UniProtKB/TrEMBL annotation:
Protein name in UniProt: Uncharacterized protein
Signal peptide: 1-19
Database matches in Pfam families: CUB_2 (PF02408), DUF7591 (PF24511), DUF7592 (PF24512)
Species per Swiss-Prot/TrEMBL record: Caenorhabditis nigoni
Residue ranges of domain DUF7591 in the record: 249-351
């Protein structure tokens, strides 16, 4: 790709033709032979347009057809902040270019759209191509039902998608970009090729693209019970992005709502001053987790394993953003995780699971398996969680809930580097945890392993109240592991 760009830059500066400035042509219509790609201004060389050049290129798309545009822009200077090129789609939605793009892909359906070139004070190298297709859907249709009683949203892979969704009330959809560097051009192009229709097929009103949906920081919601998600031709890139689909009954109170794909260190700003605000993250089969690092601001942040539910059957934690004793970080498991803020404005920081594994400060929270409270059957034989620290910590646990049926077991081990001490507790159905027993030990490492000999067994999972407190090196020498039997008067929630 770098090589390609290099060649392009070379062409832009050395062989861009500026002597013969093309006329501003009339509308572009499908050619008689639709296999033919139409290229403007010319296909075999790149043309540089002079300063002060303006033209609007109209691309017509007949009903039931689709078109694929590839646009290239390169400006001789970055002197202006006004857009050099605007892409105006079939819904009059606008994307602006202020500097340069190479081979950026767009998709238009009927009635078509426009490309607006205004070079202003720059010399602009510009070219686009259009390919028409006499259909919108190309992939085999799939069908999906969602219901207000589902606590777990449905995920639809956007690659080759032609999915008809039926809800009990109305369909809610958000885009869930998954790639770490998803904002790279390929991901944006890919999400532009996915259209969402407000009805049972592609003849319904188009609400917009998956890319516009992601940028909107809102849900798209069907007016009736059905919604259709379609990826247009040509053959898509294979994408890891997904659409997250729920019954609107569960999400109707949410205003701002988006999918958070790459869990960088970036803060997520949530404005729930007027309406609840939310974001969701996703990990295939619960294989990775979020590390909730920080919440600042005001309001209450509820964290669900799955989607937001009125019953709160899958609520896992609730934080008051203004409280300064949050005792974070906290590892968040589940497959879909939904964070819902109400009554305030807050900034939330999440990172990849590994950030929670190293203990650097006192924490108070919980440890769960990924399927806890989800009613999902996740195929695994062993779920391991590892915590470690440089200095010794005192770990304290209370097992609040655990499914030990069908030979499942839960093992908690603490390793003390100073004394080379190792302690381990294994719970199984013949040795279940005694309710409200507090287990405590000092060490530098802790493992929690939940095993099931049958990987496909339904697992209820576990929930452990957990604290880790920094201790002095000297204290660690004398600490073994103690088990305190005590009645805890209240759970965390
Ligand atoms: C249509 O265009 C394609 C590609 O340009 C070409 O291969 C094909 O021969 C053309 N068909 C006709 C009937 O001209
Ligand atoms: C315009 O800005 C982009 C990045 O913002 C830079 O890579 C590019 O070289 C600039 N172009 C010119 C001609 O200065
Ligand atoms: C695009 O540019 C126009 C003109 O500067 C501006 O009014 C509009 O808000 C911009 N749109 C987007 C989506 O950035
Ligand atoms: C645009 O191109 C013309 C002709 O090559 C040149 O004289 C002029 O300096 C260029 N302007 C800019 C802003 O690059
Ligand atoms: C969705 O629900 C309809 C009507 O209840 C039913 O006929 C259909 O089989 C369901 N489809 C799926 C994929 O569950
Ligand atoms: C969409 O409309 C076109 C033209 O009216 C029709 O030929 C086609 O069958 C319709 N598609 C569906 C899925 O109803
Ligand atoms: C999405 O579908 C493509 C093509 O079928 C597949 O290669 C890819 O692994 C899928 N992605 C996910 C996350 O399931
Ligand atoms: C959380 O954010 C606040 C405000 O930005 C900052 O003072 C604090 O250090 C942060 N805490 C963590 C654990 O990052
Ligand atoms: C859990 O899932 C099973 C199917 O695997 C279903 O029969 C049961 O009703 C579900 N329970 C709840 C509480 O949703
Ligand atoms: C549990 O283990 C015992 C002994 O290995 C075995 O006989 C039994 O079938 C197992 N039960 C299940 C449900 O896997
Ligand atoms: C539980 O663990 C003990 C000790 O490891 C073992 O002897 C016993 O067989 C286990 N019981 C079951 C049901 O797996």
């Amino acid at each position: 790709m770098k090589f390609y760009i290099a060649i392009f830059v070379f062409l832009a500066f050395s062989s861009g033709v500026s002597a013969d400035v093309p006329d501003c042509p009339g509308p572009f219509n499908p050619p008689n032979n639709i296999s033919t790609q139409v290229v403007y201004p010319v296909s075999d060389s790149l043309v540089t347009f002079p300063t002060g050049y303006n033209c609007v290129y109209q691309i017509n798309v007949p009903p039931g057809w689709s078109s694929h545009l590839v646009v290239t822009v390169f400006s001789s200077s970055n002197t202006t902040s006004a857009p050099i090129v605007q892409i105006i789609d079939f819904n009059q939605k606008v994307e602006n270019y202020t500097s340069y793009r190479w081979f950026q892909k767009y998709y238009f359906i009927a009635p078509g759209g426009k490309i607006k070139l205004s070079t202003q004070s720059a010399n602009v190298t510009f070219q686009f191509s259009v390919q028409w297709y006499s259909s919108i859907t190309v992939y085999q249709p799939t069908f999906l039902n969602v219901s207000a009683s589902d606590s777990q949203p449905s995920m639809v892979n956007v690659s080759y998608v032609n999915c008809r969704v039926t809800a009990e009330t109305r369909v809610s959809v958000i885009t869930m970009p998954l790639d770490d560097n998803w904002l790279t051009r390929d991901q944006a192009d890919n999400l532009r090729s996915v259209l969402i229709f407000d009805g049972p097929n592609e003849n319904s009103t188009c609400l917009g693209t998956a890319y516009q949906l992601w940028n909107s920081n809102r849900q798209f919601v069907s007016t009736g019970k059905t919604l259709t998600i379609v990826q247009l031709q040509p053959l898509p890139y294979v994408s890891r992005s997904q659409m997250l689909i729920q019954d609107f009954e569960n999400t109707k109170e949410i205003g701002q709502y988006r999918g958070v794909g790459s869990l960088g260190d970036r803060p997520i700003v949530m404005d729930a001053s007027k309406q609840a605000a939310a974001f969701s993250t996703y990990s295939d089969a619960g294989s990775s987790s979020d590390c909730l690092l920080n919440i600042t601001g005001t309001g209450t942040l509820n964290v669900y394993y799955g989607g937001k539910t009125d019953s709160k059957s899958n609520l896992i934690a609730s934080y008051s953003a203004s409280s300064n004793s949050l005792n974070l970080p906290q590892k968040i498991r589940g497959v879909v995780r939904t964070y819902v803020l109400t009554g305030g404005i807050a900034t939330v920081q999440i990172e990849l699971n590994s950030a929670c594994n190293k203990l650097t400060k006192n924490v108070a929270g919980f440890i769960t398996s990924p399927e806890y409270k989800t009613n999902l059957t996740l195929p695994y034989t062993s779920d391991s969680q590892h915590y470690y620290s440089d200095g010794p910590f005192k770990y304290t646990f209370t097992v609040q809930d655990v499914d030990l049926s069908q030979n499942k077991s839960l093992q908690i081990s603490i390793y003390n580097k100073q004394t080379s001490g190792f302690v381990s507790v294994v719970y199984n159905s013949s040795n279940p945890p005694i309710l409200n027993t507090v287990f405590s030990g000092v060490g530098n490492e802790m493992d929690v392993i939940y095993s099931s000999p049958n990987s496909n067994a339904k697992k209820g999972g576990f929930y452990i109240d957990f604290t880790a407190t920094k201790t002095k090196e000297s204290a660690a020498k004398f600490f073994g592991v103690i088990v305190i039997c005590a009645i805890i008067s209240s759970r965390l929630f």
